[in-house]
Amino acid sequence: MSALLPPQSTTLERAVDQSAAARLAALPAVVSSLWNADTCPPAMLPYLAWALSVDEWDETWSIDRKRAVIRESRLIHQQKGTLAAVRRALASIGQGDALVIERGDYIHRNGVALRDGTHRRRGSGGWATYRVVLREPITIDQAQRIKRLLSAVQRNCITLTAIDFRKATLRRNGQAMRNGSYTRGLVNTSIS
Fold it and tell me: d(Cα 131, Cα 172) in Å, to the nearest integer?
């Protein structure tokens, strides 16, 4: 470092330069580990997520979940606008077993589709819609987070019609409080 000082440097400046050089040499070189989701220190994970444009981030997630979301972000960005990106985004936040139904509000009246409540009859305008059926109950806040995430990875011409988790509704077993944080299984999809 001393080679960078001009020839007219004072003795004090040279001493400070040598002290700083000794301190910097004693620090471990961790720069290469900062760009890897598996080796990045936990305190630096939010900054790595920001640098890699992770679409949705929650500080309450476990360290393993945060690392998984960061790892998946590159593939999600490569596939943005496709059904695979929607599925990968859902899997990255722990909803990997979710069912994504394309043409979520449209079925043909040809006797093939079952009338089990997953589809509604509608005209031909439903081609650009999809709905997500979750297998685990989620809070309303988690549903809002999923809606934001899906709107970030889907194509702009596609519409999410519902986030449905009626198959995973809460049981009356005293474990969940009726405080307004859960619904009975269907979430309004208008992004607020």
Answer: 27
Report the SS3 class of residue 71.
helix
pTM: 0.57
* Two tokens, residue 84: 């695979």
The CA distances from residue 149 to 73, 118, 130, 144, in Å, are: 12, 22, 14, 9
At residue 100, the 3 state secondary structure works out as strand
Sequence ranges of the domains in the chain: 79-187
Type of residue numbered 104? G
Burial degree of 41 (CB within 10 A; 0-12, 13-18, 19+): exposed
What is the average pLDDT value for the chain, to the nearest integer? 77
In terms of C-beta distances under 8 Å and separation of at least 24 residues, what long-range contacts does 4-13 make, across chains too? none
